[in-house]
């Protein structure tokens, strides 16, 4: 059975709003494709360009690129970002909007990121728009 995931408003390129279910956060990585792009598949080692919103499960937003008005790019599938992103985004078509629930062991681990308000037991939820690759 698939875990209950938050619902996300908006379409590709728009800042989403998440509504959380009255359920515990999933214990494992959960990925839901909200809209499937028609571009080539993201491959490990690509320099991926995305817009994203990151929010704690049933908690505050801790980061998003929409408010900054600029996408970010990073190598994907090679350990340069948290494990949940590497696992969830490799193999997705460019142009997709993806909802990802990342348990602590595939996020920031036991340490968390205290300066961002992320505790070691925090489940992270991201909406990621896959813009392209460089």
**Percentage of residues in helical conformation:** under 10%
Record field, number of beta strands: 8
Principal-axes shape call: globular
Overall residue-averaged pLDDT value: 95
CA-based gyration radius? 14 Å
Total helical elements: 1
Q: Which structural class should the secondary elements be placed in?
A: mainly beta
Give the SSE string.
EEEEEEHEE
Our measurement of the CA-to-CA distance between the termini, rounded to an integer number of angstroms, reads 37 Å
Strand content: 25-35%
Unreliable residue stretches: none
Largest sheet: 6 strands, antiparallel
Offer a concise description of the structure.
The protein is mostly beta strands and 134 residues long.
Explain what you see.
The protein is mostly beta strands and 134 residues long. The protein is 5% helix and 33% strand. It is built from one helix and eight strands, in the order ββββββαββ. It has one helix spanning 83-89; strands spanning 7-8, 18-19, 30-35, 47-56, 61-64, 72-75, 97-102, 124-133. Strands 3, 4, 5, 6, 7 and 8 form a six-stranded antiparallel beta sheet that branches. A hairpin with a 4-residue loop joins strand 4 and strand 5. It is globular, with a radius of gyration of 14 Å. The model has no long low-confidence stretch (mean pLDDT 95).
